[in-house]
Amino acid sequence: MRQAFRNLTYGAFRVPDQGVPASVPAAIDQAALASFEGTYTFTSFSSRDKQEPFGGVGVRIEMQNGFLKVVSPIQDGPAARAGVVANDIITHVDDVATQGMTFGQALEKLRGPVDTTVRLKIARGQEAPIELTIVRAGVRLAGADLQVSVKDGKVQIEASGAPVLDFENGAPITVVPMSTNEFFVDGRDHTRLAFERDAAGKATRLVLNPGPWQITGHRIN
Description:
This protein has 221 residues and is mainly beta. 8% of the residues lie in helices and 37% in strands. The chain has helices at 30-34, 78-82, 103-110; strands at 38-42, 55-56, 59-64, 67-73, 89-93, 96-97, 117-123, 130-135, 137-138, 144-151, 154-160, 173-174, 176-177, 182-184, 192-197, 203-208, 215-219. The strands form 3 sheets. The chain has a 9-stranded antiparallel sheet, with no helix packed on it. It is elongated.
């Protein structure tokens, strides 16, 4: 079973698909690439990482053959307490059918302000459809790190401790440059990344999916 962060509606890391950029810039200066190397830790949301309070139902989900499937509920999360189990198919969210939705659209339907309710209709094997009303819980993140390194003139990123979107333990991913400090993953989640520098030009933060739902990791070495 995967741990923590991939497709996690608590953290809401993922944003609706933005697609792959039509073009990317030429190779970045090697000294500039080397300045990004280090470990960036993601421990909690800061005020600048969200525009308003929001929560989630606490499930890891994926789109499978057009259906919204529960990979696993988060232990002690709202969905788990309501009885949601792995392999459940969420057919409706607030009476809206999920079949045909993009992953991002489904995720946006599941998350919302803390303490608000969301109605789920679930298909489970041969059982009759199950209808649940779940109260969204606040965002709480355990620790996760991203290791940034440079190999053969390219930036590679690997998760340490827990998967984060496209990044997993033991599976370094080469990211594609969009600008001198912005990159994306040409993969399932199309994760976008932006390195932020301090006044001295040192990379100190790594932002995942910059925008209203971004999350910021702080460099620890």
